[in-house]
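During the reporting period the student researcher (J.K.) took over the structure-prediction task from the postdoctoral fellow and processed the backlog of single-chain submissions. One of the processed entries is reproduced below for the supervisory committee.
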Amino acid sequence: MGETARSIGAEAERRAAAHLVQRGLVMVARNYRCRGGEIDLVMRDGPVLVFVEVRARAASRFGGAAESITARKQARIILAARHYLARHGLDVPCRFDALLLDGDRMDWIKSAFDA
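J.K. obtained the following structure tokens:
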């Protein structure tokens, strides 16, 4: 990934985190990585641990942000979430959300997929 794509991704994650915090979620971790997977944002929504995938698209000519969360990408997020839970010894309710940025539009999809 080039520096421009990396900076666009970092800015998208910053905007997403601010949006979710304004809506009452609490930041727990950013960019959690393990072998085989990554989670953009880990947040708390009350008692629920929320794993958030942030997807940004400046234009939809190659598909929108939602279309970019493929089954393979979901599997990598789930793998990282299981690793996160095991590493921190957590047994809490969880969900997988997506925060989609298509140009200036921002959509928060709660429970975007299941594990």
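The committee noted the following: The radius of gyration is 14 Å.
J.K. will present the remaining backlog at the next meeting.
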